[in-house]
Structures are given as structure tokens and as C-alpha cells.
Amino acid sequence: MPSERVQRQVNLLLDDIESARAAGDWAQVSERAEEILDLDPDNEDARTFLSAAERRLERLERSDQALAPSPTRPVAPSISERPLPESFVSGRYRVQRFLGEGGRKRVFLAHDTRLDREVAFCSIRSDGLDLIGRQ
After folding, report:
1. What is the mean pLDDT of the chain?
2. Each residue of 41-76: b (16+ CB within 10 Å) or e?
3. Burial class of residue 17, CB neighbours in 10 A (0-12, 13-18, 19+)
4. Is the pTM of the predicted complex or chain greater than 0.85?
5. Pick from 57, 68, 99, 132: most CB atoms within 10 A?
């Protein structure tokens, strides 16, 4: 059983893991889980997170290899290749980093300056959408 001091450090690292997992940063999850296991080799939470991170990173690596450009398959430009916006809603949400995209949406990790907390912010492309509606 780790001392109270070590347990506090483990708890902080577990909080980091949860944030990294929510952001999809599986390399960070793996790194923090290994740090916990250095402090407390019997920590089951760290073992579970490490195992999940290893599986996820392996899947991501396989999908990256499958999607790698080849001479026969041209590479389409990604929406995520556009420059990051600095903020949204007149500066209330400060963009920290790009999280992902799908369909017509791009998702960013942002800081809500009014509520002083981290949020996921979704930007929806409206080009080609009929925003007025049909009469």
C-alpha cells in the first residue's frame, strides 16, 4: 500500500489520464499510466488504462498504415489541414488544439474564459447548406 504522499501523486496522475483519454491523447494516457506503475506497481487502475492505451494505439497505427498514401491512391486534403482558429464567440472560447473532425464538423479543445474551464467546441461548416429553408 503506497504512502499517503505517493497516493496523492497517483491520484493527480489518474486525473491527467482521464483528461488525456477524454482528449483522445492515448500516448499521454500510456505515459501517465507507466508513471503510476513506477510509483505503485500494483495499481489496477493504471494497469487498466495502460492496457486500453496500448490497444487503442495499436488500432490507430493499423488504421494509419491502411490509410497511408500509395501511388495508386491519391491523398485527399483533410479539413483539419486548415489553420486553427484562435477563438470563437468574440474571444470567449480560446482554441487550444484540434481534436478531430467528421462530416461537416471540426472539434477543438478550447478554454471557456467566462467559466474558466476546458470545453470541446464544435465548428460546423455551412457551405452548401440551405439555411433559409424552402418556401
Report:
1. 80
2. eebeebeebbebbeebeeeeeeeeeeeeeeeeeeee
3. buried
4. no
5. 99
